[in-house]
Amino acid sequence: MGLSNTIKNLTSLTIALSSCLVIGSASLSAAELDPGPKASEAARHGAALAQTNCAKCHAVAIEGESTHPKAPPFWFMSNHRSVDTIATMLLEKSGPKHSDMPNFTITKKQANDLAEWITWIQPVAHGQRLVQENCATCHAIGVDDTSPHKEAPPFRILSQFYPIEALEEAFAEGIESGHPDMPVFEAELIDLQDMLAYIESIQTP
After folding, report:
1. Are domains 3-121 and 125-201 of this chain identical in fold?
2. Predicted TM-score of the model (pTM)
3. 115 HSE (CA, 13 A, CB side)
4. What is the pLDDT of residue 167?
5. Rg of the chain over CA atoms, in angstroms?
């Protein structure tokens, strides 16, 4: 996909996001989205804003489908494109307006915090956190680190031995191979998919 098409698609997604945005109080609760104890204050605030102002049209959590046909799920925003410009585009309201796009006012902090939440729930970012929590005691999980366990392969070379997509079934069934003392691993399907999205993102030739 060319750069101009990528920018065009990102603009369309962000304008669709903006079409249902009416920013409210900074003290809103994010309990329903459960950002988790490791989320930053900015991500927590962004989750609160998303829950109150965007959930009518968008899926604003780590999974789910949007109720509005032109409103992309927030977790989908980084699919083949960057989310780094979302805050700026929200502030500038750049791009064409849709017929159902309301007027809204948003502060720089609100835009940044909403963008922080969207970044926090992207599949690769979510998967990286899960891999760090569950696998890093044995495996190298980055692009240049060393596995703490000598028999645990670095995640960045797994595609040399297995198709990454084939690992989903192995994880889902409770993978029991990899190194002799590897514990049985169980997780929800969305967690497995996001972990594999992260693992795939760090593969080296």
Report:
1. yes
2. 0.74
3. 18
4. 83
5. 19
pLDDT per residue over 85-114, tens digit each? 888 888 887 644 444 556 678 899 999 999
Q: How far apart are CA 133 and CA 147, in angstroms?
A: 15
Give domain limits for the chain.
Answer: 3-121, 125-201
Contacts of 108 (CB under 8 A, 6+ apart): 87, 91
Residue 56 has pLDDT above 50, yes or no: yes
SS3 104: coil
What the block records as the tokens of 121 is: 């729930």
| CATH classification code of 3-121 | 1.10.760
Quick one: pLDDT at residue 109?
Answer: 95
| Mean per-residue pLDDT over the chain, rounded | 79
Contact predicate 155/139, CB 8 Å: yes
Task: Provide the CATH number for the domain formed by 125-201 in this structure.
Answer: 1.10.760
DSSP 157-197: GGGGTS-GGGHHHHHHT----SSTTPPP----HHHHHHHHH
Residue 98 DSSP one-character state? P
